[in-house]
Specification:
It is a single chain. By secondary structure, the protein is of the alpha/beta class. The chain has a domain of 206 residues: 3-Layer(aba) Sandwich (Rossmann fold). It is built from 12 helices and 13 strands. It has a 7-stranded mixed beta sheet with strand order 4-3-2-6-7-13-12, sandwiched between helices. It has a 4-stranded antiparallel beta sheet with strand order 8-9-10-11. Strands 1-5 form a two-stranded antiparallel sheet. The C terminus is likely disordered. Bound molecules: S-adenosyl-L-homocysteine.
């Protein structure tokens, strides 16, 4: 990995699963918008992007509330497992001041940086950013020569935590990177597969595998689930096909305490959706992000093979429209299969205790930009 990032003592160089994960993500093509629009899971991707947008906007709102008295302080964010920069636009819309993007996949980090430069070229005024290739389950970000002394208001880790639960040391290292440089009151938030839902589906399946035509999950065994290294293989329409590990959430909550973090909430995607859709601005955003198609959509004409027997595609749309005071949402665009995949995930948010004074003494790096 990058020579300017310090590796935790006695941690081997990126090997085994980390290497697999990095080369997998490095090899994913960056499809253009046209190709993405043709994907069978385009609506699910849009929905997941909406979840992330709401989570980001909500968290930045909380940071702003808490720092209202501090004149003009700009918000600093660590995007841990940034990928190709799928959230750059969300950070721009959130008017942050500084972003650090870290990821194990060097090619993704390069693409993220190019995307950022392109945004900067077009918009001029945009947050400052740094791009760090690093294995966040083994390297120490705060030791990086360009990051020393940098503090963050938010660490965002979207669809990443499950790669760290290979071992206690790796999960701890990821948490350290996520939390040690947060300001008191700062947030560590993200999205990850919901281990209880995965285990529930596994237990009610006949074999070691479950899923539908869009996704499949295969475990090596069932019945007992170790806290770390409980591996499964996740496949989603050509998006991910690498080993992942169950994130035993109560364990994560316990381990986070070491870094002065308290759990603020943990919600399934469905719960988070039900709660946030009540907010007018988020509802409008969902309509925009789902591609401006109106409900009922094209999808309602799709063949019944895309559906679970006995259920129709709009089962959830109907349920959700009734939950939202008759407001018609474009959720009919999501097939039953997409909903099944979406319901595998959860959002979480931790906050750094305000009495956590270990870092308050630290000086901000006077010149942390590259
Ligand atoms: N957060 C991005 C990408 C999610 S895909 C988004 O929401 O679009 C998961 C990302 O986690 C990949 O980019 C992968 O390279 C990264 N990742 C996996 N293991 C990692 C590790 N040990 N350290 C840093 N990044 C890791």
């Amino acid at each position: 990995m990058n020579s300017s990032v310090t590796r935790m003592e006695s941690e081997p160089a990126t090997t085994g699963h980390s290497l697999k994960v990095a080369s997998h993500y490095n090899s994913i093509r960056e499809d253009g918008l046209a190709v993405r629009r043709r994907s069978r899971i385009v609506h699910m991707r849009n929905f997941n992007n909406w979840i992330k947008s709401v989570l980001i906007s909500d968290t930045l709102g909380k940071v702003r509330e808490a720092t209202a008295g501090q004149a003009q302080r700009s918000i600093s964010v660590l995007d841990l497992g940034c990928g190709k920069g799928g959230d750059l636009l969300k950070w721009q819309k959130g008017h942050i001041g500084h972003l650090v993007c870290a990821d194990i996949a060097e090619v993704s980090v390069q693409q993220c940086e190019s995307r950022y430069k392109e945004m900067k070229r077009r918009n001029g005024k945009i947050f400052k950013a740094q791009f760090i290739p690093a294995d966040c389950t083994k390297d120490v970000l705060s030791d990086h020569e360009n990051l020393r002394g940098r503090l963050y208001d938010v660490c965002s880790s979207q669809f990443v935590c499950h790669y760290s639960f290979e071992s206690y040391r790796q999960a701890d290292a990821m948490l350290r990177n996520a939390c040690e440089s947060l300001r008191p009151g700062g947030f560590f938030m993200g999205t990850t597969p919901d281990a209880s839902e995965l285990v529930k589906r596994l237990e009610s399946s006949d074999g070691l595998e479950f899923g539908n035509e869009l996704y499949s999950v295969r475990f090596d065994r069932k019945g007992t689930y170790p806290l770390f290294g409980c591996q499964y293989h996740f496949k989603l329409e050509g998006v991910v096909d690498v080993p992942e590990f169950l994130v035993h959430f109560p364990q994560l909550v316990e381990m986070a305490k070491k870094y002065g973090m308290s759990l603020r909430y943990k919600k399934t995607f469905s719960e988070f959706f039900e709660e946030k859709i009540a907010d007018r601005q988020y509802r409008d955003l969902l309509v925009r992000m789902m591609g401006l198609e109106s409900y009922p959509s094209e999808r309602s004409r799709y063949p019944a093979t895309d559906r679970t027997p006995g259920e129709c595609d709009h089962h959830h749309a109907k349920r959700h429209t009734s939950h939202t005071a008759g407001v018609r949402l474009p959720l009919g665009m999501l097939s039953q299969s997409e909903w099944e995949a979406i319901r595998l995930y959860m959002v979480f948010a931790f906050q750094k205790d305000s009495h956590s004074t270990d870092l308050t003494q630290r000086e901000e790096n006077p010149n942390p930009e590259r």
